[in-house]
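Collaborator request, handled under Task 6.
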Amino acid sequence: MPTEAPAPSASDLAPPLAGGGRIAFELPIFTKLEGLHFQKSEQTGEAVIVVKYAKNDVSMSFKGFRREFRIAEDCADGRMLDLIAKGLRYVKGLRPGDPLPKEILTREASWDLSDRHVRIAYQRVSLQLVNWMTGGESVISDPDELLQLADDPGTKKMINQAFGEAAEKLGLGRDHKEEVIEHVKQLAQELAYIEALRDRFRRIRGMEEKIQLLRRLYGREKSVLEMADQVARLGKRAVNEFNEIFLEVDAQTGEIISALQNLSSQITYIRDRRDELYCKLMAWDEILLQWDHTVTIMSPDHAELFRRTYMFLAPRYMMVKEWVLMSQLVKPQESLKAVSQMGPTPSKPNKPRSNMRW
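Structure tokens returned to the collaborator:
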């Protein structure tokens, strides 16, 4: 019987890869088309097939492609296209021969965890058991503080005692705490993905902080300030939406004994929230990269960055009525002017995107 419960590593808990599940087709047309790949349309968000034609990328909707090449929905290639459409929720692009995302095959995550996030999740769950045992209500949210407590001998002793108490409560018997440890490991494995996504969310908080600093810098430049105010307002809605999801997950798994008693349903719930958060955060990658490299000193580039950020945030976080009214205007430049009052955007021709981001 162990004297203490060692925190698992990501490699210890990583699920096995699903067998097969690669993108393959029967019809020869899929091998004859040059540069064929699948992605979501930037304009509509629907899944499209992209091919090279005269050095340019040409896209066609799945529906149009099925109709053009007479691909029935219930044939093997039709079913594969359905799986690809679902898989594009989790990745930015797919090609023939690529593995389908595990989210649509086994409900596991197709992206990797770090040992750090596994340890944080394991420690958080273990301390929830200690709180349950002692009647305490202290909640430690800081990841570094959680990891420091993991090395504390007194904390280790309390956690080990809590495993025994939990085994008794769960009807396993105090001498069967190894089963509780396994349950905690499974729960921590799933929650580790939430911890990783919580870290990614901190980049949005960092962007929000930079926006507030720049608002103060441009306090006397009305055109930039008005756009910055719009971006800040929408950014706050985004932050609140993410916060609500994280708080919901924390509350759902906070009743630790209940979570361990209903482990299967808890795992299903966590995976649903994991995928929801992951897909939402994936859309932020490009705009966050621009903010990561933005310095908080006055620069002529900031007006354009605010404009791009606004165009990213508005369709996602503007109130429905506001967005409908804005989208009814004739030109995108006029809609941006009407809402931000910043003035028309520079009229630059759209450049075709020859390379997609993977």
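The cover message to the collaborator said: "Residues 1-5, 9-19, 330-358 have pLDDT under 50 and may be disordered. Residues 1-18+112-358 form one domain. Please let us know whether this matches your experimental observations."
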